Amino acid sequence: MFAKLFLLFTATSLLEIFILVKVGGFLGAWPTVGLVVVTAFVGSALVRSQGIQTMFKVQERMNQGEMPGQQLIEGMMLVIAGVLLVTPGFVTDFCGLMLLQPNIRAKLAKAAMNKFQLQMVAGGQGGHAGFHGGFTGGQPFTPPPQGPNQQGPADNKVNDGNTIEGEYERKE
Question: How much is the mean pLDDT over the chain?
Answer without folding.
Answer: 76
